[in-house]
Amino acid sequence: MSDWKAIKESLRHPENPVVFFEMTAAGASLGTFKAELFADVVPKTAENFRQLCTGEFRKDGVPIGYKNSCFHRVIKDFMVQGGDIVNVRLHLKLSIGDGTGMTSIYGEHFPDECFELKHNAAGILSMANAGKDTNGCQFFITCAPCDFLDGKHVVFGRVIDGMLTVRKIENAPVLPNSRPKLPITVAQCGQIYKVVLLGEGSVGKTSILMRFMENTFEAERCSTLQAAFFCRSIKCDGQKIELAIWDTAGQERFHSLGPIYYRDSDGALLVYDITDQFSFEKVKQWVKELRRMLGSSVQLCIVGNKIDLQRFRNVTLVDAQRFADEVGASHCLTSAKTNEGIEQAFLSLCERMIAYRRATLNEPENRMNDGVDSISFYGQEKSRGRRGCC
């Protein structure tokens, strides 16, 4: 079982977003942890955290987020805390917070969403606050069950992979005030998107993926059996995202397995061979299947491969572009052999996935109410006693 498949099967809800944090201590890698955000229960709290992870939230056009921020408080067997991106001092280009800063995508702070979820295990993500209804950017991760925090802090996620990295942070040497002696830094963070490659056999799906992953090309390549899985990070629209990519078999005998691999996908590359009209007709069938199974949430990029064989083209550019427009997809041309358009195809799909996410955020039911700005700001760090978390 692939890491991504294990992660997806462990999710509380299949549509909950998954984010990642690459951590360092004084520049040395501590590893990466991944977290599920409980958007099914606390959608606005989860969205605040997600946008600060991806960097897509902006103030005056400047991205605001957790990248290069530091964990400022570590208490072994209790919790590790970070996320102060406001009251910071710059040290070696790092944003080291003092633990009193507060901001959010909704304003300075926002109300407690609900207390349904509990601090019942290690690896729980919860909002730090300065009292009732003062959620902002700061968060903590539990290192043990902390039921005494229930009803006081909003739980919004959990670590689903990389708990060893959290344990390394927990065991970092600290000063008497619980501040780490070495900067524990978020070197990179973002969201993970699931992408699937679909298309008829021999259209070049695996060749496209190998160009994208390893910048290699083999003229003679064995057909994919069932599916193969890969991961790669890519920078798009000013943010780093992680792609979990499924390369599916194109042979007819494997088509019944398709739903297993494209279920819960955020995006799909639908590949046809520009010299093969039949492969283009099969793409049309895949589009219908994806829309039937996943609706409009899955973002599509239709890819015409083998443009190095332009003189043998049987699918006109006009027809391909017209169909893409009709189904709300982008259209790209590629050649895995000559490495043309490969990166652009993946970027095009990433742009669509990010744009879709932003569009859903702007729907009225996904916005915080206007009463947020009237909440008083405490601006004081809570007592450092064990029950005074954050």
Automatic annotation (TrEMBL):
The keyword Protein transport applies. It is found in: Endomembrane system. One of its GO terms (cellular component) is endomembrane system. InterPro entries: Cyclophilin-like_dom_sf, Cyclophilin-type_PPIase_CS, Cyclophilin-type_PPIase_dom, P-loop_NTPase, Rab21, Small_GTP-bd, Small_GTPase. Gene3D superfamilies: Cyclophilin-like (2.40.100.10), P-loop containing nucleotide triphosphate hydrolases (3.40.50.300). It is a lipid-anchor. Keywords: GTP-binding, Isomerase, Lipoprotein, Membrane, Nucleotide-binding, Prenylation, Protein transport, Rotamase, Transport. Residues 20-191 form the PPIase cyclophilin-type domain. Its main location: membrane. It catalyses: [protein]-peptidylproline (omega=180) = [protein]-peptidylproline (omega=0). It is an enzyme of class 5 (isomerase). It holds the Pfam family Ras. GO terms for biological process: protein folding; protein transport; Rab protein signal transduction. The keyword S-adenosyl-L-methionine does not apply. It comes from the Eukaryota. Its EC number is 5.2.1.8. One of its GO terms (molecular function) is GTP binding. NCBIfam families: small_GTP. Belongs to the small GTPase superfamily. Rab family. This is Ras-related protein Rab-21. It comes from Trichuris suis (pig whipworm).
